[in-house]
Amino acid sequence: MIGKLNHVAIAVPDLSAASEQYRSVLGADVSGPLDLPEHGVTTVFVNLPNSKIELLHPLGDHSPIAGFLMRNPAGGVHHLCYEVTDIDAAQSQLVAAGMRVLGDGSPKIGAHGKPVLFLHPKDFNGTLIELEQV
């Protein structure tokens, strides 16, 4: 079902500083910030040859990232994103296997303009999983 690792998401307390660190210290290709109000985040992508790092910062008062940063003030790994070719088929297979899809269970449009789903971390060894249709 899952394909390649699309990105590792890291919640950061200061998006500007984190972006600059990846750009200047590690010499990475770093995108500009993108607000995603539906997800409650501002995101920046660090483009790597084989994957991406997504830097996440809270957007709005009800951002899930705000709660994460309250528990982890220095930031940290928030989720892993894997690619799937058919998100609806993946969702059906996961639900049939007893896995929990977060939110209303329907795909939403993610940062890359493609459908995404998030899977409950308690079903995946404490790791929040995002699936993105490619």
- What is the CA-based Rg, rounded? 15 Å
The helicity comes to 10-25%
Which CATH architecture?
Answer: Roll
- If you consult CATH, what is the topology? 2,3-Dihydroxybiphenyl 1,2-Dioxygenase, domain 1
Low-confidence stretches: none
Q: Quick one: how many beta strands?
A: 9
Please name the fourth-level CATH homologous superfamily.
2,3-Dihydroxybiphenyl 1,2-Dioxygenase, domain 1
- Enumerate how many helices there are, as a single number: 3
Overall geometry: globular
- Assess the beta-strand content as a share of residues: 35-45%
Total domain units: 1
What can you see in these coordinates?
- This protein has one domain: 2,3-Dihydroxybiphenyl 1,2-Dioxygenase, domain 1, CATH 3.10.180.10.
- It is 22% helix and 36% strand.
- It has helices at residues 15-25, 64-71, 87-96; strands at 5-11, 29-30, 34-36, 41-47, 52-58, 76-84, 108-109, 115-119, 128-133.
- Strands 1, 2, 3, 4, 5, 6, 7, 8 and 9 form a nine-stranded mixed sheet that branches.
- A hairpin with an 8-residue loop joins β8 (115-119) and β9 (128-133).
- The longest helix is centred in the first third of the chain and has 11 residues, at 15-25.
- The radius of gyration is 15 Å and the shape is globular.
- The model has no long low-confidence stretch (mean pLDDT 96).
